[in-house]
Specification:
Helix content: 40-55%
Oligomer: single chain
Distance between the termini: 11 Å
Radius of gyration: 14 Å
Shape: globular
Structural class: alpha/beta
Number of strands: 6
């Protein structure tokens, strides 16, 4: 996968959420299940970051992120929503792709590099369209694996 952040097949899903709070809760549960983290702690960190300003990126994408203790490297998760949800994004559009990132507490530049890598991925039209068209979690993960493997080459 990507050398900047780790992602597992089980950290991608297609789901429905009823609002921003539900998105963050579901994302926390996805991180917990995929990486063995405590969902309540993940949610607390994501909510604290969100209080600083919306992580709604634009173009229907949100990138909730946080730094957490006890992580060894950045880890990512991706949710595709069945129906767009209001997320206070910069462009005012609701989101239907939610790309989460958790980094070690003292990761500094590493966290910023991982955010930049995610930002580049979702800005790339071909990748964005493929993620939006993905019919299931396996396809979501495959799109990301193929995109990041190609970029690393």
């Amino acid at each position: 996968m990507n050398s900047i952040f780790a992602m597992k097949p089980e950290s991608a899903c297609i789901t429905q959420a009823d609002g921003k709070d539900d998105i963050l809760r579901r994302l926390s549960e996805l991180f917990a299940g995929a990486y063995g983290l405590d969902a309540a702690q993940v949610l607390e960190h994501l909510e604290e970051r969100e209080k600083l300003g919306s992580t709604g990126f634009g173009r229907g994408v949100a990138i909730p992120h946080a730094r957490m203790p006890k992580l060894k490297r950045p880890v990512a998760a991706l949710m595709k929503l069945n129906r767009p949800v209001e997320f206070s994004a910069a462009d005012g559009l609701p989101v239907d792709l939610v790309f989460g990132l958790l980094s070690p507490a003292n990761s500094g530049a590493t966290h910023l590099h991982a955010l930049a890598a995610i930002s580049r991925l979702v800005r790339e039209e071909r990748v964005h369209d493929a993620l939006c068209d993905a019919p299931d979690a396996e396809a979501l993960y495959s799109v990301l694996t193929n995109a990041t493997d190609r970029d690393a080459a």
